[in-house]
Design goal:
Elements: H1 2-11, H2 34-55, H3 58-72, H4 76-87, H5 93-101, H6 107-125, H7 129-143, H8 146-153, H9 162-169, H10 172-190, H11 192-216, H12 221-244
Helix pairs in contact: 2-3, 2-7, 2-10, 3-6, 4-5, 4-6, 4-12, 6-12, 7-10, 7-11, 7-12, 8-10, 8-11, 8-12, 10-11, 11-12
């Protein structure tokens, strides 16, 4: 269970020993546990959502659920998304990487985060009760399998740093196991819609990886974090479409 505890410490603010954001081994060595931690996050979200839906109107309940979602991860992946958005203003790869190192948030990052969170809140609010809990359970699990895929498919943009260390340590078997676990959970919870959800998350993640590789020369830890956030939104939107579009 050491790997699971390391993954939980890296991905959440849950006090499981050690300093948050660090693991005893390189993060890539515990990537196989990432979807499992995502599933546990999903369980928390389902419980919180049931409580807030009972107590508050639907839109406010969705806002509280998404707030819990971001708090439990300490905003780790939102920071990566903001950095990637800010990097869009750079003129070349070196300047974009420099912008991503800056801890301050720029206009692109701030506006992008606002729009992203609005989309996520609306997606949760508009889901009917049955697909809503299934989406909340599945999205964090599926999304946390995506960094392993990007780590194997795209080169690192830097030779040092947390992202480079993650990519160097992710083995093909671990990446396949992470993806396989996410697919099994999606199928069990969503049925055929689970394949659509996983496909949507994978397409968004690979598109992001490809886009950032062209602009940066590879992917960074921020890109991997952004992939998690965008994959979660992709799953929510895919499930919303799956339940809304007549078949």
């Amino acid at each position: 269970m050491r790997g699971a505890l390391q993954a939980a410490r890296y991905l959440t603010i849950v006090p499981v020993g050690g300093k948050r954001g660090t693991v005893g081994a390189p993060p890539g060595s515990v990537v196989v546990w990432f979807p499992a931690i995502g599933l546990l996050i999903g369980v928390v979200l389902v419980v919180v959502d049931r409580l807030v839906v009972w107590a508050f109107p639907m839109l406010l309940a969705a806002l509280l659920t998404v707030t819990t979602w971001k708090l439990i991860t300490g905003g780790l992946h939102l920071d990566g998304l903001a950095d990637c958005l800010d990097a869009l203003g750079g003129h070349d790869a070196s300047q974009r990487l420099m912008i991503m190192r800056d801890s301050r948030i720029g206009a692109f990052g701030a506006i992008g985060l606002i729009l992203f969170l609005l989309l996520e809140i609306a997606a949760v609010a508009e889901l009917a009760p049955a697909p809503r809990w299934r989406a909340l359970l599945t999205a964090p699990c599926v999304a946390r399998a995506m960094p392993a895929i990007l780590a194997r498919w795209f080169p690192p943009a830097r030779s040092e740093g947390q992202g480079a260390r993650f990519q160097a340590d992710v083995q093909p078997r671990a990446a396949a196991a992470a993806l396989g676990g996410a697919v099994l959970v999606a199928l069990a919870v969503l049925g055929a819609g689970g394949i659509v959800a996983v496909a949507a998350a994978a397409l968004v993640s690979v598109a992001l990886g490809r886009f950032m590789t062209v602009r940066l020369g590879g992917v960074t830890g921020d890109v991997l974090g952004a992939a998690v956030e965008l994959s979660e939104l992709a799953v929510l939107l895919a499930i919303s479409a799956w339940t809304h579009v007549p078949r």
